[in-house]
Design goal:
The structure holds two protein chains of two kinds. By secondary structure, chain A is α/β, with parallel strands linked by helices. Helix content of chain A is 32%, strand content 21%. Chain A has a single domain, classed as Rossmann fold. In chain A, strands 3-4-2-1-7-8-9 form a seven-stranded parallel beta sheet. A two-stranded antiparallel sheet of chain A has the order 5-6. Classes of the chains: A alpha/beta, B alpha/beta.
Chain lengths: 189, 285
């Protein structure tokens, strides 16, 4: 299977969880990584700068109309939903919160399915609510690959637990195993 | 002849895209509102939402109702028009207006401001409060426009749910407000009503950015988080409309994640505040 993008949804505990993933992807990682991290509406871009500083891939905030490129990780801006268009460019929206969240993981995942169909990898990491469960289930139903962080290795297990329950993911992986798994999967071809 | 086989999901996706095109075409032909150049991911999300609560199975089935039921059309219009906003949204933007723009506005004897896509008016009233505190409101005419009549009605009323006041007050304070926010409204039951005097210099009017034309000789155009729903061509068209509506040296204010950077008109503007997305039309091309 040729995968074309990775989408990640993460909430409470994301700083350390993403710290186990983004810095461990090689500079030539051949997929875009698109991330919704729940974050307060008025946050600055400290987290993005931090990850960009310690990662080989380029880490940045997603700009509207920007094209998703391999070797890049994109974060949804605070207080905006992030969507992927069928031409693989980003759109932003300020419509109402979904699952009490803006950005919402479900909004990203559902639009990414329209863009990437079965060649999408969806990942749910640590968090305190159930945003992303429905989106992950849809990725699975469309034939994409689904991964959930093992709740035992999550700072806050509620979000991975909800995702496992609803979507019965293909893989439940320990946090430290997620990056090697992705690298291996993508380099196999 | 070999016909490439598509799986069920691909067929569904293909059909849904066709049905959505037809749906938008129907709105345009029947009611004159043109959503055909909106970003597709957003439109799809909104139409799927309407489908899920409508009881129909496919978008195609909704087209008949769209044609024959004006009440249903109004619901669809509300779906497609995002009116989520707040007073003093992005407080640092209003700070920048106070420090970077107001000193230049003060040099004009009369000021015209256009809030394009004003939705339910929160940001219009924010600007009116700011201008009053800076001593400019009395010589300012604000035109607040939207295509959404229901939103305009709410905007005109100046009435907002009381549960939003805490957030508005915090924003106001962070934005550099000089008074107490409670000076500007009266609370009644579950609502607050903004002071009538704030409305004196505001005209609320129906205007559609997609299909309508230039709007006066403006000193400032404020259009925040409206064009994020447009595709690139429509964005360029609307920015040109703003350019033509501004006097030389007039200001264009966009949302904090919007930019002129990739627009074909970017050369015609200077940055007043790059971070807050405040641009200034050059004095000569």
């Amino acid at each position: 299977m040729n995968y074309r993008a990775v989408v990640i949804g993460v909430s409470a505990g994301g700083m350390s969880a993403l710290g186990e993933i983004l810095p461990r992807l090689p500079v030539d990682f051949s997929l875009p990584v698109i991330i919704v991290q729940h974050i307060s509406p008025q946050s600055d871009n400290y987290m993005i700068k931090h990850f960009n500083g310690i990662s080989e891939i380029t880490v940045k905030e997603a700009d509207e109309k920007e094209t998703a490129l391999p070797g890049h990780a994109y974060f949804a801006p605070p207080n905006y939903h992030l969507l992927v268009e069928e031409d693989f460019t980003f759109s932003l929206s300020v419509e109402n919160r979904v699952n009490y969240s803006r950005p919402s993981i479900d909004v990203l995942f559902e639009s990414a399915i329209d863009a990437y169909c079965s060649s999408l990898i969806g990942i749910i990491l640590t968090g305190a609510n159930n945003d992303g469960s429905k989106g992950l289930k849809k990725i699975k139903d469309c034939g994409g690959l689904t991964i959930v962080q093992d709740p035992k290795t999550a700072e806050v297990p509620a979000m991975p637990e909800a995702a496992i329950k609803l979507s019965k993911p293909d893989y439940v992986l320990k946090l430290k195993d997620i990056a090697p798994f992705l690298v291996n999967l993508v380099s196999k071809k | 002849m070999v016909v490439p086989v598509k799986n069920d999901l691909e067929l569904l996706k293909e059909n849904e895209n066709i049905e959505i095109e037809l749906f938008l075409q129907t709105i345009f032909m029947k009611y004159g509102y043109d959503f055909r150049n909106y970003g597709k991911a957003h439109i799809k999300r909104r139409i799927r939402h309407r489908l899920s609560v409508s009881g129909f199975q496919t978008v195609c089935e909704m087209i008949h109702k769209l044609l024959y039921d004006p009440v249903f059309y109004q619901e669809v219009l509300q779906d497609l028009s995002i009116t989520v906003t707040e007073m003093f949204r992005d407080p640092t933007f209003y700070q920048a207006i106070r420090t970077e723009v107001v000193p230049l506005l003060k040099t004009y004897p009369f000021i015209k401001i256009w809030h394009a896509g004003c939705a339910t008016g929160e940001e219009v009233y924010s600007m009116a409060i700011l201008l009053r505190e800076e001593g400019l409101l009395k010589r300012t005419q604000i035109y607040a426009t939207d295509f959404n009549q229901l939103a305009l009605q709410k905007a005109r009323s100046g009435i907002f749910p009381i549960d939003r006041i805490k957030e508005f007050t915090q924003n106001y304070q962070k934005s550099g407000g000089k008074a107490s926010f409670s000076d500007y409204y009266n609370a009644r039951y579950e609502s607050v009503i903004l002071n009538e005097s704030l409305k004196e210099n505001i005209v609320f009017a129906d205007h559609n950015l997609v299909t309508d034309g230039v709007f006066g000789e403006m000193n400032m155009v404020v259009c925040r988080n409206v064009m994020i729903y447009f595709d690139k061509d429509l964005q360029n068209k609307v920015i040109r409309l703003f350019y033509e509506s501004l006097i030389p040296g007039g200001f264009l204010c966009l949302g904090s994640k919007e930019s002129l950077r990739f627009s074909e008109h970017s050369e015609k503007f200077d940055h007043t505040s790059e971070k807050e997305k405040i641009y200034r039309k050059k004095f000569s091309e």
